[in-house]
Design goal:
The protein has 523 residues and is an alpha+beta fold. The chain has helices spanning 2-15, 46-61, 105-119, 154-168, 194-199, 204-215, 244-248, 263-266, 300-310, 327-357, 361-367, 369-384, 390-418, 425-455, 466-506, 512-522; strands spanning 33-40, 66-78, 81-95, 124-129, 145-151, 174-178, 185-192, 218-225, 228-234, 251-253, 261-262, 267-274, 279-281, 284-293, 321-326. Strands 5, 6, 13, 14 and 15 form a 5-stranded antiparallel beta sheet that branches. It has a 4-stranded antiparallel beta sheet with strand order 2-3-1-4. Helix 12 runs antiparallel to helix 13 and helix 14 packs antiparallel against helix 15. It is elongated, with a radius of gyration of 35 Å.
Length: 523
């Protein structure tokens, strides 16, 4: 009881630290691929974008550990596709291998971002992104952190989005948190004065048709030649409209006996900024505010929790809401699946063992090895500062099979010794522990030595599976030691309780051998 009570106390202390354990979906992989984006104010020309891009490219070339830089101005490339956008640019930077660098990719990104911010490029927004695993989308948006604002009116959504950005600024580890479409596109807005138009006998359709004819032309008739017909399009000279004043002079109705009615007489023409695109979710408009996370400063889970805390008291109009997503979506989903898999695995193991032993006592004893392994996993994560992630979950599932196998062999040997004449349950479990000590230590040491290089993160890309190896090393080390002491104690205690329950229900006295097994650990 003393051994089991001490272990339960330690396990309770370790499990109490679980809520404060940092978490992420996948660890950062430092492959040296760094990205950047450039966004200029609406109406910027490709020449201005090219000038800013070349200036930033010069800053990048002055940074250490740069192998190559590929810059795009006036658009961007994605996979095998390209898109034209006068005020946008992108950067693809390849760094030296991590073994040849004195700084990590996250440190390099922060240094470059500070250099760009200190340069003070007027009218330009420039962001540098840490390496990502290409082709892997860990969320619906593909971003580390994302906040969606839902509602009806675009202007209200933009105002709420700006308030969200102001509140979230300064969260440790968060970088480039902004709406990629908030710069908008310049548009000409024609607002018809319906009362003045009605007084002149005009409606929206007539005004719209006149503007369309002036700017894009309209097909007045068709010219037939042989078996072919050609459209005859009528429009104003292309160079006539250079400003809103020129557009206001477009005649809507022109007659011989009355002065022409111009567009400016019945409408207001002005330049406005319109959204680059409108996204809908469940028939509601939304804007997406995305950001990157510097994992050396904070994990995705910590950044998401900070954002949620800062936005908790943000007042929103009726009909508007916020959805905080990003990698946290994948984390929540993986945690749900992990819980389901672990519960299902424990249930299936219990059923198989119960059928094999024709008893409920031995399966319960064997399954006590699983929480012991989890104690080692959590303790190792806390000791190394490793966040809980999907690879850690895989390591926990692997550990469940390994430690259960050790416990099965220990209990099986004890049951075998118990069939010998004159052997008490205490003697049987002690003999089983002595017999299984060498095989258990050999398999454990072999597994630890084989996993140690991966736990140290040696080699390119070792960061991805390092959490799995750390979980296996911690869980296997602790569970092996605890299995040799806790499982025998649990075996004696649970069998003693089982004997008492059977005696109480059936009224049969326990056998002398079982009675000695119960009495000895109590003494």
């Amino acid at each position: 009881f003393i051994v089991l009570g001490s272990v339960l106390l330690v396990a309770g202390l370790v499990f109490s630290r679980v809520p404060g354990l940092p978490h992420e979906f996948l660890p950062q992989v430092d492959d040296g691929s760094v990205g950047g984006f450039i966004r200029l104010a609406p109406g910027a020309t490709p020449q201005q974008t090219d000038r800013i891009t070349r200036e930033i490219e010069g800053i990048v070339e002055q940074m250490p550990h740069v192998q190559a830089v590929f810059a795009t101005a006036g658009g961007f490339l994605f996979g095998g596709f390209s898109a034209n956008s006068a005020g946008r640019g992108s950067l693809d930077i390849l760094l030296d291998p991590v073994s040849q660098r004195k700084m990590s990719a996250d440190q390099w990104v922060r240094t470059l971002q500070e250099s760009i911010n200190n340069r003070g490029l007027a009218g330009a927004r420039v962001g540098v992104r840490p390496p990502r695993i290409r082709g892997l989308r860990t969320s619906s948006t593909g971003e580390a952190v994302s906040v969606a604002v839902l509602g009806d009116e675009i202007l209200t959504l933009q105002e709420i989005g700006q308030a969200v950005v102001r509140r979230v600024q300064g969260v440790p580890g968060l970088q480039n948190f902004q709406n990629p479409q908030d710069e908008g596109s310049p548009l000409l807005s024609i607002e018809l004065d319906r009362e003045r138009a009605r007084a002149r006998g005009l409606n929206v359709q007539q005004v719209g048709a006149a503007v369309r004819t002036a700017l894009d032309g309209s097909v007045a008739t068709r010219y037939a030649e042989g078996n072919f017909e050609y459209d005859v399009r009528v429009f104003f000279p292309r160079g006539r409209f250079q400003s809103t004043t020129d557009l206001m002079d477009v005649p809507i109705v022109a007659t011989r006996n009355a002065p022409a009615i111009r567009l400016g007489d019945v409408a207001r023409v002005r330049t406005v900024l319109g959204p680059n695109g409108i996204t809908r979710v469940n028939q509601s408009r939304q804007i997406q505010i995305n950001g990157d996370v510097i994992t050396e400063v904070a994990t995705v889970g910590a950044v998401t929790d900070s954002i949620r805390a800062r936005l908790a008291d943000l007042e929103l109009p009726d009909g508007y809401g916020l959805i905080i997503g990003g990698e946290q979506e994948a984390i929540d989903e993986s945690n749900q699946q992990l819980t389901l898999v672990i519960v299902l695995a424990i249930f299936l193991v219990f059923v198989v063992l119960a059928v094999q032993y024709e008893s409920l006592v031995d399966p319960i004893v064997i399954l006590t090895a699983i929480p012991l392994a989890m104690v080692g996993v959590i303790a190792m994560l806390l000791a190394t500062g490793t966040p809980f992630s999907a690879p850690v979950a895989l390591g926990m599932i692997m550990l469940a099979g390994i430690v259960v196998n050790n416990a099965i062999l220990l209990v099986e040997f004890a049951e075998g010794y118990l069939e010998m004449p004159g052997v008490t349950r205490t003697q049987a479990i002690v003999s089983a522990g002595a017999a299984r000590l060498r095989p258990i230590m050999m398999t454990t040491i072999t597994s630890l030595v084989g996993t140690l290089p991966l736990a140290l993160g040696l080699g390119e890309g070792g960061e991805l599976m390092r959490p799995l190896a750390i979980a296996v090393v911690g869980g296997l080390s602790v569970s092996t030691l605890l299995t040799l002491f806790v499982v025998p104690c649990t075996y004696l205690i649970i069998h003693g309780i089982g004997e008492r329950v059977r005696t109480f229900i059936l009224g049969n006295p326990a056998s002398v051998r079982s009675g000695n097994a119960v009495a000895e650990p109590q003494g």
